[in-house]
Amino acid sequence: MARIAGVNIPDEKRIEIALTYIHGIGHPRSKKILADLGMNPDARTKTLGENGISKLKDYIEKNFTIEGELKHQRQMNIRRLKDIGCYRGSRHAKGLPVRGQKTKTNTRTVRGNVRKTMGSGKKRNLYELIGARPPLLKLRRGKIYELIFHNDRGNEENRRKEGKA
After folding, report:
1. How far apart, in Å, are the Cα atoms of 135 and each of 3, 83, 146, 151, 160?
2. What is residue 133's three-state secondary structure?
3. DSSP collapsed to 3 states, 31-85
């Protein structure tokens, strides 16, 4: 296995794909590196030889920020945002989305609002849950004068008179 920037590059893969194993190098950058060096992107890593690998290693380390240095740079940027106390820094500190995403339905676990997958998340009325009808209130001058409960058949039974309750 070839080793570039402290990462083992797989031998059996095309060099264009193998370079993406390095943190900080994706497909577009991999294509650009190979085009600048004049290498065949379809060649396998094992067919490059020591000369090709050393050429790749020198070019990558000279022109790009990769691996540990890139991770350190990203951490320092986040720390700077937290230190100056800006909105993005406070979102990073709380572990919430930074770029304006909605949080009502997503990132529930981060906010501490964990729901089981049983329901849709919609809160329901107590009477809907037990399958009963709510009692009927008859009002006179803003005061309850009669409270009617319904039985299973829907008849008006169990009348209870409440005087100016």
Report:
1. 76, 57, 10, 10, 11
2. coil
3. HHHHHHHCCCCCCEHHHCHHHHHHHHHHHHHHHCCCHHHHHHHHHHHHHHHHHHC
The residue among 38, 64, 47, 33 whose CA lies nearest residue 2 is: 47
Q: Is residue 2 within 8 Å of 9, Cβ to Cβ?
A: yes
Give the mean pLDDT per block of 10 residues along the chain (165 residues). 88 93 95 95 91 93 92 96 95 90 81 66 65 72 70 47 45
Helix (H, G, I), strand (E, B) or coil at 21: helix
Of 22, 16, 23, 25, whose CA–CA distance to 44 is shortest?
16
**pTM for this prediction:** 0.60
Report the distance separating Cα 55 and Cα 34, nearest Å: 11
Give the phi and the psi of residue 80 in degrees, each rounded to 5: -60, -45
To 10 degrees, what angle do helices 27-37 and 49-63 make? 120
Cβ-based neighbours of 87, under 8 Å, separated by 6 or more: none
136 beta partners: 148
Per the CB < 8 A criterion, the answer to whether 139 and 145 are in contact is yes
